[in-house]
Amino acid sequence: MIKVDARGMQCPIPVVRAKEALGNASPGDTVQVTVDNEIASQNLCKMAAHNGLEYQSERDASGAFVVRIVAGERAEALQTPPAAACGGATVVAVASRTMGTGDDALGAVLMKGFLYALAGLDRLPDTVLFYNGGAFLTTEGSASLEDLRLLESQGVEILTCGTCLDHYGIKQKLAVGGVTNMYAIAEKLVGAAKVIRP
After folding, report:
1. How confident is the model at residue 77 (pLDDT cuts 50, 70, 90)?
2. Does pTM surpass 0.85?
């Protein structure tokens, strides 16, 4: 068994360390990754599932999350080519509750208008990413939830940074889309044919 202690590490480091260990393992070997938060555990499980690897996750007596992944192919099989990640996609990256700089009240009105307009376009983006202050737009109380749900119902992927939700203490208030990590955000942005930052 190959053990990786990733406690105290911010995303995407636990996933990167797990991929490195799996790349050095022989098929059938088990890589055990220990992390100290649920989001890191979920990200490791998603990575394993995405690559078709057997895995299990549990909490140990200390409260840490222990994820065991059975190695399959070599490292090359664990790399997700940028084109496959987004397929030449259009990605909208929202880093703030406001659009532009200057007057925050005006910026909030502009952002609401932008997301409303986005949901009504004939050509929709493939993914909308929310991080830092933008995380508030996908949580309870956001004036844009109806528009974001409309986008999601039309097949647009809505993803919010889990580290950001944790930082602001609003993870339990997420009201649309899913939680993602910095590795996936970087992968989406690098693989996109077009990135729009309102």
Report:
1. low
2. no
